[in-house]
């Protein structure tokens, strides 16, 4: 009896939960009078699966348990890349319909969409998303679409699982097929106009580049083409027509296009506004912005391509360019007026698109809002073309004024030339008379100079002979100095204090030993892997594959040596410089180490010297270091 009452109580609670949850969600009714409907607010409930492993049954249990939350945003957004988001919508079919209906997703950058549609007493899964080949789509359209059951009957509940490597807008639209076809035709017509205008603007600037030979037009051409590629990536057009069989390109192609557009846009602004002359400080700031953007792009490529999703970084070069245009316009640079108008449109579109992406847009996302940035790009390109033409017109006007000034100046110069010629003729006659008088004096002085030159020539020859002798003496002296220096280094009387100036402590010795041991590269002695990391000991190396750690003194003549390493270095140097003839008693006296230890270590060094006799024969003052690496150890 108790068990029966308990089951009844639990059943009542579950029924209440289901009833309360159902009331919280609004049903969207199919109506032939409205050919499309965008889901928003309470029409969508959602659940975040932080594990990313829950299936449909688990999700339905979560709904019954009241874990789904009502959407309070105009457009739902996925905030966490590691989570899977489940959305639940209800489509009412109380009214008879003569149309076929589809459910469409606006955002073409969603990696994975799985739609669970009701079929009798079960659910059928339909997989969509940019991670799947384009040929797998039922509708060969850039958006993700699938048919829904529009026959009259009870309300249908759909579960949608979305997972993406970046934050996406979940814009779901219920449309009739006829509305979808008309919309798609209009949309592709708009795309044709948009990309056609990009090509026209590019061709126009290419002709300007051929005519004017100014690099700013080349920058603008690359900027236009980059914008076109970015828009194709964002709209899904590139996936449909350029790389339909390579979904992986969708993850980073837009980032490369956006980087190229950002860099060449700011370079174009720099040239068009002539910032080097009109705003030198801003010109320096722009150079640093370009360097920072390039570093960020390389970091995205080399470290984490997911950083391409932070498109808000493009706000920095856009604002800098816009501010530069306003600044030079205020200073009186007229070609900047159309530039400022064009960038005002571009900045407006960027703000709208950013608000939609950050989910702070207070209105439901419509087609106009979604494509606002593309429209603003067209307006920006139009006004930038006006700015280029305006600059050419102003330059032509300045050129005409300059030509008129040159003509007037040439006339004035002609008059001055006539006056100057008459004055010069009189002066030439006077100077000719003076030159005739002085020519005789110059002839006499030339004779005197000739005799002086002969004497100087003799002295120069004598100085040349002396210089040759001095140069020979310098070469002999230089060679003598080098020989004395070399002999001084190799003297056995070099004391430990002087030797310690080169190798003063354990750290210096370890560094020298590390450079000597791995001068030809690192290779793990266990698995031959060439990649490593730092070990626990100073200058030791740990294999990145098997984890084997090799200390800096392993496999050297210094392995298992208990004497200080700098004294061991000095002992090797003394043994090498004396060719092994120094006694262990002498070593003990010099290094303050027990004679038995010196004898054991010097015997080991002699053995290595004997083995490498040919190798160190002509090694010079570097020969002692060749004894350190004990290959037999």
UniProtKB/TrEMBL annotation:
Coiled-coil residues: 442-473
Transmembrane regions: 188-210, 217-242, 254-273, 285-306, 312-330, 342-364, 370-389
Alphabetic keyword roster: Coiled coil, Membrane, Signal, Transmembrane, Transmembrane helix
Annotated signal sequence range: 1-24
Residue span, 7TM-DISM receptor extracellular domain: 42-174, 187-391
Lineage: Bacteria, Pseudomonadati, Bacteroidota, Sphingobacteriia, Sphingobacteriales
InterPro entries on file: 7TMR_DISM_rcpt_extracell_dom1, 7TMR_DISM_rcpt_extracell_dom2
Protein name (Swiss-Prot/TrEMBL): 7TMR-DISM extracellular 2
């Amino acid at each position: 009896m108790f068990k029966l009452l308990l089951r009844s109580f639990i059943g009542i609670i579950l029924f209440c939960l289901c009833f309360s949850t159902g009331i919280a969600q609004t049903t969207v009714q199919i109506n032939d009078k409205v050919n499309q409907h965008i889901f928003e607010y309470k029409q969508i409930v959602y659940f975040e699966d932080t594990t990313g492993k829950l299936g449909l049954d688990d999700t339905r249990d979560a709904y019954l348990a009241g874990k789904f939350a009502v959407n309070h945003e105009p457009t739902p957004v996925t905030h966490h890349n590691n989570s899977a988001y489940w959305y639940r919508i209800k489509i009412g079919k109380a009214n008879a319909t003569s149309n076929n209906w589809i459910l469409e997703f606006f955002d073409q950058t969603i990696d994975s969409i799985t739609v669970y549609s009701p079929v009798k007493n079960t659910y059928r899964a339909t997989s969509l998303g940019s991670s799947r080949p384009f040929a797998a789509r039922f509708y060969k359209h850039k958006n993700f679409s699938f048919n829904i059951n529009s026959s009259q009957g009870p309300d249908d509940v759909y579960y949608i699982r979305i997972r993406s490597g970046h934050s996406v807008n979940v814009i779901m639209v219920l449309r009739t097929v006829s509305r979808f076809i008309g919309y798609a035709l209009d949309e592709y017509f708009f795309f044709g106009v948009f990309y056609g205008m990009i090509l026209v603007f590019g061709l126009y600037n290419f002709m300007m580049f051929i005519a004017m030979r100014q690099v700013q037009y080349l920058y603008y051409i690359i900027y236009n083409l980059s914008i076109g590629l970015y828009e194709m990536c964002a709209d899904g057009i590139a996936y449909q027509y350029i790389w339909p069989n390579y979904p992986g390109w969708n993850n980073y192609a837009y980032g490369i296009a956006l980087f190229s557009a950002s860099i060449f846009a700011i370079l174009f602004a720099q040239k068009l506004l002539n910032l080097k002359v009109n705003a030198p400080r801003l010109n320096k700031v722009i150079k640093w912005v370009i360097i920072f953007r390039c570093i960020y792009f390389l970091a995205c490529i080399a470290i984490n391509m997911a950083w391409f999703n932070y498109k808000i970084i493009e706000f920095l070069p856009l604002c800098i360019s816009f501010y530069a245009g306003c600044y030079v316009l205020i200073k009186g640079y007229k070609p900047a007026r159309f530039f400022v108008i064009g960038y005002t449109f571009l900045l407006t579109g960027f703000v709208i698109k950013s608000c939609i992406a950050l989910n702070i847009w207070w209105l439901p996302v419509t087609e106009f809002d979604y494509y606002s940035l593309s429209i603003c790009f067209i307006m920006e390109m139009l006004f930038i073309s006006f700015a280029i033409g305006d600059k050419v017109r102003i330059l032509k006007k300045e050129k005409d004024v300059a030509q008129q000034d040159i003509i007037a100046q040439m006339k004035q110069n002609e008059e001055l030339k006539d006056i100057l010629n008459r004055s010069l003729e009189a002066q030439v006659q006077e100077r000719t008379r003076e030159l005739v008088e002085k020519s005789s004096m110059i002839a006499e002085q030339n004779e005197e100079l000739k005799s002086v030159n002969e004497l100087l020539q003799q002295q120069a020859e004598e100085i040349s002979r002396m210089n040759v002798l001095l140069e020979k003496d310098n070469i002999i002296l230089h060679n003598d100095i080098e020989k004395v220096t070399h002999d001084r280094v190799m003297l056995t009387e070099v004391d430990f204090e002087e030797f310690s100036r080169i190798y003063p402590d354990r750290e210096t010795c370890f560094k020298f030993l590390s450079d000597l041991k791995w001068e030809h590269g690192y290779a793990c002695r266990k698995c031959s892997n060439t990649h490593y990391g730092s070990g626990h000991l100073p200058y030791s190396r740990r294999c990145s594959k098997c984890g084997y750690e090799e200390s800096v003194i392993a496999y050297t003549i210094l392995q298992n040596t208990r004497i200080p390493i700098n004294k061991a270095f000095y002992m090797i140097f003394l043994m090498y410089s004396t060719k092994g003839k120094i006694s262990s008693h002498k070593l003990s006296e010099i290094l303050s180490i027990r004679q038995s230890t010196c004898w054991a270590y010097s015997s080991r060094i002699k053995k290595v010297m004997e083995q490498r006799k040919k190798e160190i024969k002509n090694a010079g003052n570097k020969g002692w270091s060749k004894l350190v690496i004990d290959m037999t150890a």
